Amino acid sequence: MAFDIDMIKAVYAKFPSRIAAARKAVGKPLTLSEKILYSHLWDGDANTAFERGKSYVDFAPDRVAMQDATAQMALLQFMQAGKPTAAVPSTVHCDHLILAKEGAKDDLRNSLTASGEVFNFLESVSNKYGIGFWKPGAGIIHQVVLENYAFPGGMMIGTDSHTVNAGGLGMVAIGVGGADAVDVMAGMPWELKFPKLIGVHLTGKLNGWTAPKDVILKVAGILTVKGGTGAIVEYFGPGAKSMSATGKGTICNMGAEIGATTSTFGYDESMDRYLRATDRADVADLANEIKEHLTGDDEVYANPQQYFDQVIEINLDELEPYINGPFTPDRATPVSKMKEEAEKNGWPMDVEWGLIGSCTNSSYEDLSRASSIAQQAIDKNLKTKSEFGINPGSEQVRYTAERDGLLGIFEDLNATIFTNACGPCIGQWERAGNNTRVNTIVHSFNRNFSKRADGNPNTHAFVTSPEMVAAIAISGNLGFNPLTDTLTNEKGEQVKLDPPVGSELPAKGFAVEDNGYQAPAENGSSVEVVVKPDSKRLQLLEPFAPWDGKNITGAKLLIKAFGKCTTDHISMAGPWLRFRGHLDNISDNCLIGAVNAYNQSTNSVKNQLTGEYGPVPATARQYKAAGVPSIVVGDHNYGEGSSREHAAMEPRHLGVKAVLVKSFARIHETNLKKQGMLGLTFANEADYDKVQEDDTINFLDLVDFAPGKPLMIEFVHADGSKDVIAANHTYNEAQIGWFRAGSALNLIKEESKK
Ligand code: SF4
């Protein structure tokens, strides 16, 4: 089950009646987000108004997408669920496990050898359970989804935080952990807290050097990395209509960087054009028949303050190009201020690499606009001062861009064309001569956390648009402002780069010889899935033990994490990606990037059994072996970043019982719940400071665990004194059931047996 026009017809058939019912229930005009949500209620009853930010609601997503790094764990779990086939159209995309080093051809061949076992596993599971399989080199999951599966008004989930990219085609597309994907593929409802709504009113039109990327870079500066938490961001206004569908995808994509549940745009002509260009005229025709339901009601957009929880106004006529970073995607600096800002902060001015690609910015339009800058460099006798690398988003984009001469332009500037895959964006980059040198890179990706691209904590990575990456790579200087500055060419002349030009869609249409798709077997019941018992890469899962019904007592503090603790800090990517299908092996990276609040070091925590300092995973394993439960304490927005549930499964596997933090990122909090962990927040944030390194921790009333009721936890300090603190939680009755059963999957298995 891959692309299914009948499924889209069935979804659209429900829209008019469900939206009318929802409008009546809510008692006012509806945003697009509400229309999509109410049209996808699991029980189909749109006669109840849900409270934004409060009500837990069951939904019926239309499809599921998984990438190779997270699909391993998702499918290992699905295999336990006891279902013969995926209940909704689902796809697997092999894009994360391909190392960028020499260039596409060699890199792909080497990765097929290095990760062949995993690719074969994913291929055979997909084949068995009716899941579409996109081979290594076919492209980055979100670009492939936008090109093939996304449709206006649809709802999908994906085991990757940038699933939200499909909002570019008017979907509500949400990143989740693998356990959520298992729910939907097992034919069960998928639960989400009804989101709040943030409206972004775009007026004016992008012009000159500004690009869709600058819209989201500015929004990230306004909202910060947690400002979108629990909300859908809905873009509207004339500025929204003036942008391409892939440009809208870029904006939605980086909604993940502000913590938003997802982002979306109303259906418009750009989406119609994109659907037709990607061979889906039938979908465009269907969408046009119900187009009034595929955008927010007029009254909503006329008076947005009345209908959204927050409204942001951006005039695209006045928008400047932005460069965000280093180390966090919300540190937004307009290009005109970057020189001053970089000098003030001592950021390295020499730019060593410019990288274009990632699911955020690897469309045909992106490559065409960036190549227009590259062409100018050639025409004006300029050379790139930085190294230059390109990852096309899909084989279809790559093939078409090569046919149209765009890749040739980059190659003439000595750029390396890497595989149609994530590559440096996820640390799959063997960067020559890099260690711990302080240096700067610029890229068109979405994330720039410390160590993300190349594992070097001293790499200052800056996020910007592809055209700005090209300009900065040519200049080799972080402070270069192409709007005002000139460059000295090979002849010693001063030359200026003109603003980029490009094509929204290829004039001769898209083309591809082999898009890399492999349909599953009609009947996969006889397909054998092989996992070798001695495999280092894959390990069949053992169910987590159910709760024993008693208070957790005598627990030790594994780590009190200080400051930013993203999923990259909890479960690093890069070289660790190879263990994503082997829970025990990947657990050796558990929290090794988190900073210990007591010594400001990473991967060095006090083992209370021995009094000595040691690595986090080894310490956790010793507690587990001794039958001593442990807990993790963290700061704000704990678990920010990716959807990887390894960040929840690893501590669970290593005997951590609870994670107590000032606040959570949404996906990670859900992942903890699904894996049978306690995800708790300090009722009083200042209590974070009361937690001491040698504490012994006792839960006082876990036996009365109930929705809305804080849990009381006693921290017994080394000197015998105690602090009892209140911990809030957001578990509802069903989620408490997951905790009791040991995991959500344990409950599904029980259901399947009935
Ligand atoms: Fe791949 Fe990077 Fe996009 Fe994640 S953010 S899907 S690693 S390109």
Automatic annotation (TrEMBL):
Keywords linked to the UniProt accession: Iron, Iron-sulfur, Lyase, Metal-binding, Transit peptide, Tricarboxylic acid cycle
Gene Ontology biological process: tricarboxylic acid cycle
Alphabetized Pfam families for the sequence: Aconitase, Aconitase_C
EC numbers: 4.2.1.3
Metabolic or biological pathway, per its Swiss-Prot or TrEMBL entry: Carbohydrate metabolism; tricarboxylic acid cycle; isocitrate from oxaloacetate: step 2/2
Catalytic activity entry: citrate = D-threo-isocitrate
Lineage: Bacteria, Pseudomonadati, Bacteroidota, Cytophagia, Cytophagales
Protein name: Aconitate hydratase A
